[in-house]
Amino acid sequence: MSQYMVEIQLPAVMSEEFTAKIPAQRKKINEMMEQGIMMSYALSDDYSKLWCVVRAESEFEVMSIVSEFPLIDFMDPKICRLMFNNVVALRLPMFSLN
Q1: pLDDT for the residue 86
Q2: pTM (2 d.p.)
């Protein structure tokens, strides 16, 4: 299974319809993260772009996954297969018996 970076251009003006779908989008992303499909999800501070790392067998599968996003009608995704994706693992602090 490969990992793909998906860069998504968002609309310059967020309509009421767009804003109304944000909670459903967040719910879908959380489900995909729990399932191990989505590895990361990031939004630029000006709300113009999203980036996500997706685990899939092919670009076609990535597009199939992205097409499930509630906000897909407002998105222009670009897909790039990654050679690797190093991340810092979140972990609990070391436990001390002292």
Answers
A1: 87
A2: 0.84
